[in-house]
Write a structure and sequence with these properties.
There is one protein chain. By secondary structure, the chain is α/β, with parallel strands linked by helices. Helices cover 40% and strands 15% of the residues. It folds into two domains: 129 residues, Aspartate Aminotransferase, domain 1 (Alpha-Beta Complex); 206 residues, 3-Layer(aba) Sandwich (Aspartate Aminotransferase, domain 2). It has 13 helices and 13 strands. The strands form three sheets. The protein has a seven-stranded mixed β-sheet, with helices on both faces. The protein has a four-stranded antiparallel β-sheet with strand order 9-10-13-12. Strand 3, helix 4 and strand 4 form a beta-alpha-beta unit. Helix 2 crosses helix 10 and helix 3 runs parallel beside helix 4. The chain is globular and about 60 Å long.
């Protein structure tokens, strides 16, 4: 791999802390499966039919438009981006939104020799600007990569905004991959990119963030049938087929376990409301969002990367995600940022350390380091 993720390497190296505000997804979900007798020899070249049907219903598409995997959303992104890069070698330029989730940028850099950035300005509420997109595209542009809700801000792009972007994509003949994993927190509030354009719009998503299914690694993509067939053909030529057991479990969760999934998610959304109240009481400045359990917070600290690593983690047993990890342009230079992403996923919603942790965060800002 030419472009590993600096963020993920940092994440797994952070020592255990009492107040862990790094996780952007639901941290815990337990469920008694009681599957009975299952044929462990079964696999499917185009996904488990029941699971595919259930997910197609969820996303209001035909089953033929669903690509399922046991690689999670990150695996979907990596595979989809690579397949698209190999489709047309002449279209060897890609555009990635800025700021964004660093691993997405690295996936693109791995397979496209030329990468440009589409700025999403804070002063414009991180809106997608189609005019700005037109200024940077070329005949070589083959792919645009977005997130919706936007990572790290949580801003949601509505249908009209997406239509303008997809109009440019159609006009200049390039694909748009949109990672919509955070939309699962409030799926009906976020239009899928595929619902806007069913030819060049591609959704990638998973169920680790909203539902705590990180151990299951269930991933899904929604795309044109011909593309879905290409994704499955690529799978067959690389790993063979994906785990049927993952999809059997997912089907059970989407049916008999659905209410349990939703109740568990709701606990974290309730925790988020409490966090919003506490942050406002403490006069923290953050970008408001209705679709994630994270907060993109502006602090008085000029370099939150240094502050997190040298002060809060070591001296306060508290960790947030430094904003610098979302602000890489092309290389690995860590820019100074006064932002942090504060996530609630690692907290126990039944016995949260939320108020105590925010008190510690507030005290850390006042202490010298």
């Amino acid at each position: 791999m030419k472009y590993p993720s600096l963020y993920l390497d940092w994440y797994v190296r952070v020592p255990e802390v009492k107040y862990d505000f790094r996780s952007s997804g639901v941290g815990t979900f337990k469920y008694s499966l009681d599957l009975g007798e299952v044929n462990l020899s079964t696999n499917h070249a185009h996904g488990n039919p029941e699971t595919v049907w259930l997910l197609a219903k969820r996303y209001h598409v035909a089953p033929e438009n669903l690509f399922t995997s046991s690689e999670g959303a990150s695996g979907q992104n990596a595979r989809v981006i690579r397949v698209l890069a190999e489709k047309n070698p002449k279209k060897n330029e890609a555009i990635v939104e800025y700021p964004t989730y660093e691993p997405l940028l690295r996936h693109v850099q791995e397979h496209f020799p030329a990468v440009k950035r589409l700025e999403r300005e804070e002063g414009e509420n991180y809106k997608l600007d189609s005019d700005r997109l037109r200024e940077i595209i070329s005949q070589r542009t083959g792919l645009l990569v977005l997130t919706n809700p936007h990572l790290p801000s949580g801003a949601v792009s509505g249908a009209s905004e997406l239509k303008e972007i997809m109009s440019v994509a159609r006009e200049h003949d390039f694909y748009v991959v949109c990672d919509e994993i955070y939309a699962e927190f409030n799926r009906d509030a976020t239009p899928t990119i595929f619902s806007i354009d069913q030819e060049v719009g591609i959704v990638t998503t998973g169920f680790s963030k909203a539902y705590g299914l990180g151990g299951l690694k269930m991933g899904a993509a929604v795309a044109d049938k011909e593309l879905v067939d290409e994704f499955y053909a690529d799978t067959l030529s690389t790993v063979g087929v994906f785990s049927n057991m993952v999809e059997v479990i997912m089907a059970r969760l989407l049916t008999k376990g659905n209410q349990t999934l939703e109740r568990n998610k709701q606990k974290y959304l309730t925790l988020k409301k409490t966090a919003e109240k506490l942050l406002k009481e403490k006069d923290f400045e953050y970008y408001p969002n209705n679709s994630c359990i994270t907060f993109w917070i502006k602090l008085s600290v000029k370099d939150t990367y240094k502050w997190t690593n040298e002060h809060t983690t070591k001296k306060c047993s508290l960790a947030t995600v430094p904003g610098a990890f979302f602000l890489f342009k092309h290389d690995y230079k860590l820019v100074k940022s006064n932002r942090v992403r504060l996530g609630l996923g690692s907290l126990n919603p039944d016995k949260p350390l939320l108020a105590e942790g925010l008190d510690v965060l507030e005290a850390a800002l006042k202490a010298p380091y």
